[in-house]
Each structure stands twice: as structure tokens, then as C-alpha cells.
Amino acid sequence: MAESLFDKYGGFDTFTLVVSSFYQKVLDSDELEHYFRNVNMDNLMAHQTNFIAKALGGPDAYEGRDLRQAHINLDISLPDFLEVAELLEESLEEAGVEDVDVEAIIQLVGSLQDQIVMQT
């Protein structure tokens, strides 16, 4: 059985750092920070880390809402979604994730667009 991307890069230790770096970039973005006002960021980062773990072949510890329900009232635009993907890509690269694996992860994120982007 092939090693999962989650295990290949060090599991929760690595992806906790990736998620932390990612959300710092998001909160520093003038275009994105408003989505996260009044959000418990520690709770959100824990959910996101568990979601990534599951998505990348790690343990299934994610207990959050489905993506559509979690994002339906946020009115997320396509440009904002694309900026989020760029910031995640930067965070993955900074963590030492190989380009081919970064590309695979970003493709996975792109496949979720219709569940997250609600603005037409």
C-alpha cells in the first residue's frame, strides 16, 4: 500500500503547522480576513487540520459540518476562493511539500469549489 500524503510529510505535526501558516496569511489578507471575524480560530484550525488529515489519507477525525453547509452563508466569491488556494499553496511549499504533491493537493481543493463558492 502506498504511503499517504499525510504520512509522507509527517502527519499532524506538519499539517498543524501548514494550517497555522495558512490562516495567518488569510487573516493578513485584506480580501479574506472579513470571513473570519468573530470566528474561534483555534477551533477552526483544529477542524481544518482534521479535514486535511482525512483528505490526504490520514486518520478520519473530522467531525465538522459538510463543506456546503459550512460555507453557504458566507457568500464566498470565486476570486476569494482562488486567493485561498494560492495561500494554501504557499503554506504547503514553505513546509517542504514537493511540487507534484502541492499540485495534487491544490487540485483536490479546486474540486471542492462548487461546495464552497456561493456567489454567482
From TrEMBL:
Keywords: Heme, Iron, Metal-binding, Transport. Pfam families: Bac_globin. One of its GO terms (molecular function) is heme binding. InterPro entries: Globin-like_sf, Globin/Proto, Hemoglobin_trunc. Heme binds at H47, H71. This is Truncated hemoglobin. It comes from Shewanella psychrophila. The lineage of its organism: Bacteria, Pseudomonadati, Pseudomonadota, Gammaproteobacteria, Alteromonadales.
